[in-house]
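Researcher: Sequence recovery benchmark, item below. Answer with residues only.
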């Protein structure tokens, strides 16, 4: 399954990419996180949220084919 992964803020700086296409076998958020942390070990030291098609998701959620996934740094309201 092909996903579009977008990185924002310090996550884009850490990975040195703002967007990439990624092929994954599984459709769970948790397995995607493992794959991303294997590819970019620096992510292990950072907090971030994941959004799929502009909706925040949890690790237990599933990702559909052709989804747009965003890695979002911590943010504060005000």
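Model:
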């Amino acid at each position: 399954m092909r996903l579009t992964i977008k990185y924002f803020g310090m996550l884009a700086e850490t990975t040195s990419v703002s967007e990439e296409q990624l092929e994954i076998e599984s459709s769970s958020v948790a397995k995607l996180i493992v794959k991303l942390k294997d590819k970019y070990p620096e992510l292990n030291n950072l907090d971030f949220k994941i959004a799929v098609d502009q909706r925040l998701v949890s690790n237990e959620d599933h990702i559909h084919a052709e989804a747009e996934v965003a890695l979002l740094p911590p943010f504060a309201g005000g």
